[in-house]
Structure formats: C-alpha cells, structure tokens
C-alpha cells in the first residue's frame, strides 16, 4: 500500500479512532468511579487499554458489578 492509498483511507479511519478513544475514556472514567468490579481494577485497566476496541466493550458488559 503506498501513501496515496493511505491518504484515501484517513477520512474513514478518523471516526473509528475517535469512537475507540471515546470508549476507552468512558470505560476508564466509569472504572475509576466504581467501588466494586468483577475482578481487580488493575486487570480491567489492562483489558480496556490493550484489547483494542473490544476491551471497553468487554468491561461494560462483564466487568461492572451491579450495585
């Protein structure tokens, strides 16, 4: 893939990156405000940060403890 093809993809990638960053920030803020989670908080931080787009989604579905 050369640079001209990459430039064509940039408008498509920007919304995806913004969405991913928003999910990460929302998950980390929610995690910091919760007293109890299903598992240690340090583990959820690693999952949120390093499992790409699916990390925050996994946290919101499985990590939050019902209060």
What does this structure look like?
The chain has helices at about 5-35, 40-50, 55-65. The chain contains three helices and no strands. The protein is elongated. It has one domain (about 5-65). The longest helix has about 30 residues, at about 5-35. It starts with a helix and ends with a helix. It has about 70 residues and is mostly helical.
DSSP E strands, number: 0
For the residues shown, what is the average pLDDT?
88
Q: Return the string of H and E elements.
A: HHH
Helices, by number, come to 3
- Roughly what fraction of the amino acids lie in strands? under 5%
Q: Cα-atom Rg, whole angstroms?
A: 15 Å
How many domains? The number is 1
Helical residue percent band: over 70%
Sketch the major β-sheet. Answer: none
Low-confidence parts, pLDDT < 50 over ≥5 residues? none
| Principal-axis shape | elongated
By secondary-structure content and strand pairing, the structural class works out as mainly alpha
Taking the alpha carbons of the first and last residues, their distance comes to 49 Å
Concise account of the structure shown:
This protein is mainly α and 67 residues long.
Features:
67 residues, single chain, mainly alpha, 3 helices
Please give the structural blueprint.
Blueprint: H1 3-33, H2 41-50, H3 54-63
Helix pairs in contact: 1-2, 1-3, 2-3
């Amino acid at each position: 893939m050369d640079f001209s093809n990459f430039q064509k993809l940039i408008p498509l990638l920007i919304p995806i990156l913004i969405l991913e960053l928003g999910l990460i920030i929302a998950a980390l803020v929610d995690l910091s405000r919760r007293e109890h989670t299903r598992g240690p908080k340090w583990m959820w931080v690693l999952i949120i940060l390093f499992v790409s787009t699916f990390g925050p989604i996994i946290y919101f579905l499985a990590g939050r403890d019902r209060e």
